[in-house]
């Protein structure tokens, strides 16, 4: 997961969501024994002085919150998403707030969406105050894809850092409404078989992966429903939700899978997208 010499990179703008993201990120940097880079990318010269003051204010709050973390401040011109993506190649984690200046409340910002789609390192999008979601497990969505395997490794390492456990969730589609002409009893029998087989498979995957992470407790859970809804609901009691960049249903041309995109928009906790 983390290369210790690489910093935690944080995108800062003029809005409160990025302040909360920065405070979450500096706590994460402290756990990782990493430096932190605060970056404001300005595409409007008339805002430069205001953004410079904003950057200094956020940096000051972060230093008060975690004085042991070395924090550098960077104000540069350009397109915010493109510059953050470029800098992500030298970072171990990129953190952003959930929205920027052009998005209404409740929407995921265009910059956050772009960096989650194209960044070279894992990306965490922080929703809400940094003081929320400081307990609970690391929840990871698993679907047997290569990306979800990488997400599981990230989640196990995050559990070590946060001194918590891992909950791996595999969601099987609920077909009851898709085939209403099929007898419910037949669907229920098949569901029990599918559930038991999926749970056994996921349990084996966890057993194999946790051998490299002694001391981490990981448990498997199989749910019936739709992945975005089920993972977002699980995120309400999670410290962090981790998903792969693209799952088994992702077509090669998609830059960000539908499940990853959906939980970024709907999960209440910090969401990390891992390639």
Fold topology:
Elements (H helix, E strand, L loop, with lengths): L7 E4 L4 H17 L3 E7 L5 H18 L5 E7 L2 H9 L4 E5 L12 H9 L4 E4 L11 E4 L4 H17 L3 E8 L10 H27 L7 E8 L1 H9 L4 E5 L13 H9 L4 E4 L1
Helix percent reads 40-55%
List segments where confidence is low: pLDDT < 50 over at least 5 consecutive residues. Answer: 100-107, 249-254
Shape descriptor reads elongated
Largest sheet: 10 strands, mixed
Name of the CATH class of the largest domain = Alpha Beta
Number of domains: 2
> Mean pLDDT score, rounded?
88
From N to C, what is the helix and strand string?
A: EHEHEHEHEEHEHEHEHE
Strands, total number: 10
Supply the number of helical segments. Answer: 8
The main sheet orders its strands as: 3-2-1-4-5-10-9-6-7-8
What is the CATH architecture annotation of the largest domain? Answer: 3-Layer(aba) Sandwich
Please outline what is shown here:
Residues 6-127, 137-275 form the UspA domain. By secondary structure, the chain is an alpha/beta fold.
What does it look like?
It comes from Saccharopolyspora phatthalungensis. Belongs to the universal stress protein A family. This is Nucleotide-binding universal stress UspA family protein. Pfam families: Usp (PF00582). This protein folds into two domains: 119 residues, 3-Layer(aba) Sandwich (Rossmann fold), CATH 3.40.50; 137 residues, Rossmann fold, CATH 3.40.50.12370. The protein contains eight helices and ten strands. With 275 residues, it is an alpha/beta fold.
């Amino acid at each position: 997961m983390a290369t210790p010499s690489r910093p935690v990179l944080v995108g800062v703008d003029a809005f409160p969501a990025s302040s909360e993201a920065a405070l979450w990120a500096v706590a994460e940097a402290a756990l990782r024994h990493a430096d932190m880079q605060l970056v404001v990318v300005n595409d409007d010269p008339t805002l430069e002085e205001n953004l410079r003051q904003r950057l200094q204010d956020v940096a000051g709050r972060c230093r008060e919150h975690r004085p042991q973390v070395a924090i550098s401040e960077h104000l540069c011109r350009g397109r915010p998403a493109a510059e953050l993506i470029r800098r992500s190649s030298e970072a171990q984690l990129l953190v952003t707030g959930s929205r920027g200046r052009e998005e209404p409340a409740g929407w995921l910002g265009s910059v956050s969406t772009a960096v989650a789609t194209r960044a070279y390192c894992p990306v965490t999008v922080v929703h809400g105050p940094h003081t929320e979601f400081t307990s609970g497990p690391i929840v990871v969505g698993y679907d047997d894809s290569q990306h979800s395997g990488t997400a599981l490794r990230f989640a196990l390492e995050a559990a070590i850092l946060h001194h918590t456990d891992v909950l791996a969730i595999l969601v099987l589609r609920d077909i009851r409404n898709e085939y209403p002409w099929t007898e419910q009893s037949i669907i229920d029998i098949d569901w029990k078989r599918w559930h038991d087989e999926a749970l056994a498979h996921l349990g084996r995957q966890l057993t194999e992966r946790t051998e490299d992470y002694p001391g981490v407790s990981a448990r498997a859970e199989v749910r019936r429903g739709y992945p975005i809804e089920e993972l977002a609901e699980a995120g309400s009691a999670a410290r962090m939700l981790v998903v792969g960049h693209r799952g088994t249903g992702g077509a090669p041309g998609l830059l960000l899978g539908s499940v990853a995109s959906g939980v970024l928009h709907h999960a209440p906790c910090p969401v990390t997208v891992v390639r």
